[in-house]
Fold:
Amino acid sequence: MTIKVLVVDDQAMVRAGFSALLGGQPDLEVVGEAANGAEAVELAAEKAPDVILMDVRMPVLDGLAATRQILTGTTPGEPPRVIMLTTFDLDEYVYDALRAGASGFLLKHSSPDELAAAVRVVAAGDALLAPSITRRLVEDFARLQPVLPTTAADLTPRETDVLRLVARGQSNREIAATLVLAEQTVKTHVSRVLTKLDLRDRAQAVVYAYESGVVSPGPRH
Structure:
């Protein structure tokens, strides 16, 4: 199954580079390029991409505002997954984008293999939360946010354990090893957590876990 990708960046060279790299993959198809957030919103509705590579800082409409519009739009069907592109590893706009529903972020200087892998991971419904840099970003900015009242009372103790480990950036396989469970059982628990808390994906689960106080920000690694 071909994954349709929309590339959004205000620099033509960056767009062309990403498009060439992704277009050379047999399972990826670049369906459009946009130079700003406003164009991205229009093309997202027109092309129905599976994944959008979205720059954070752009003229006319920035990546954060565009992400909010796209993910809260009324376009029929499943909304696309959004990967935020940034030059900076600690960028408050990226944290805000995770809160808005983006599925993760990627540094612009990532390797071609990392770029293609990121698109596949997000298209599969996972989130780019494993790298330590992502955990650090979420933890840093979680410290600046007020802790909301915990509303995870509907979660079972095991589901709460799984949520905590998801928030620490562990994959399903790592969670299975930690809790001595089958990987399929972990997938089921994650699905139930997302459903009960009305969350789109693991990225929002991480943000929720920190903001609700289920997990406390820890030291940097």
In short: The radius of gyration is 17 Å. The longest helix spans residues 183-196. The CA atoms of residues 21 and 112 lie 6 Å apart. The longest strand covers residues 28-34.
